[in-house]
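Researcher: Please predict.
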Amino acid sequence: MSVLITGAGIIGSHTAALLAARGQSVLLLDRTPAHDAIRTIVDDPRVKVVAGDVTDVDALERLVRDHAVDAIVHTAALLSTAIRKDPLAGIHINVMGTANVLEIARRRQLRRVVLASSATVGYQAFGDFDGTAFPEDFGMHYLRHRPASIYVGTKVAGEYLALLYRDLYGVDAVALRYAAVISAWSGPGTSVPGKVLSSLLLPARRGETACIDDPFTVWRGGEEFIDARDCARANIAALDASVPAQGVYNIGLGSLASFDDFVAAVRLTHPDLQVRLDVQPAGGF
């Protein structure tokens, strides 16, 4: 039996590496695989990189059938920066792609589906949180705040679809809400943390001032970050759990970093970095 990983980005590639290291056969699916970047993380004959699209349900099901797939780790998604440019594509990939994975799991009676969600699904509920204690009505407060972006909306939809397939059809699906993911990656990427890192590191390497002019790359208060390798470990834990106690889990480090903390971390390797803020932070990612 083999595991299908959709999305050959940084999390998918690290997850494939962990599975291969323990002798498991892996299919790593991506619309346009970045082979050179993938090989910097995993270069193992047990990992087969294939080109494919999660929005093509028939082709996806054939892949699952032909390779005796018994579990799926679904990380394929259009990320927030790209969705702002093409919202409809984001909805097709993130919502219908997730629906296709869950439907195939139902039809083929797969052992487990692990879905990549995002901590951003809960951000709006904390907009007026003073940091002291959760109010008694926090649950209602959380529910009445709609997503602030289409990306977050697609992740909320994915979680609810997973829970419905779990409750109505017995699909063993678990959604993992990753904190803001950051790690070294040489392939294409449109994640906000990656964009933040590039906006600081590239000028630092050239000896220039980092001019922050995109309001989406600076934040007010604390943001929780996580290494992509820890996300991969969480995926493996979710795959291996005998009976997950619930359908959604938060995956993070339990600590927050301000924008100034982030700049200070970059200055550990580039101590002369100068930063100029041309925009004011409005909130989290």
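Model: The two ends are 38 Å apart (CA to CA).
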